[in-house]
Design brief:
four-stranded mixed β-sheet, alpha+beta, 2,3-Dihydroxybiphenyl 1,2-Dioxygenase, domain 1, single chain, about 140 residues, 3 helices
């Protein structure tokens, strides 16, 4: 098995609310959408928003007890100066700030917010990583 991730799918409660958040808040453009799911091309992978109950049904889980494991998604930037404006843009689009951007113990600068369904996102600058023009991250 190749060491890669092909798709990340979030189970969302309201597809239109989530669509607006990612389109208006992030400036992303869907590459496919229907009444149940939206796909965004994100570099070499796909980010999907799928109605929560339909996602639960897709892998045979009970929608009433279908939960989520604690995790965070991250968007890394090329410079420290990019973090705060992106945090502000997310907040303006309806994000709840979980942790304001600040100096991190690992030497970078980052903050966290939650999207309309409560999924945590980190906006981070890591001085030890390089980001290629295509968005690929290289750990030095």
């Amino acid at each position: 098995m190749d060491q890669r991730v092909s798709i990340i799918t979030l189970g969302v409660n309201n597809l239109e609310t989530s669509r607006m958040f990612y389109v208006e808040g992030f400036g992303w453009k869907p590459v496919f959408e229907n009444k149940e799911i939206i796909f965004f091309q994100t570099g070499g992978m796909v980010f999907a928003l799928f109605l929560r109950d339909h996602l639960a049904e897709d892998f045979a889980a009970d929608p009433k007890t279908f939960g989520r494991a604690p995790f965070a998604l991250a968007y890394n930037v090329r410079s420290k100066a990019e973090v705060d404006p992106l945090m502000q843009r997310a907040a303006k689009a309806g994000a709840k700030i979980l942790k304001s951007a600040r100096e991190a113990s690992w030497g970078g600068y980052s903050g966290y917010f939650a999207d309309p369904d409560g999924f945590a996102w980190e906006i981070a600058w890591n001085p030890q990583w390089r980001i290629a023009p295509d968005g690929s991250i290289y750990v030095l």
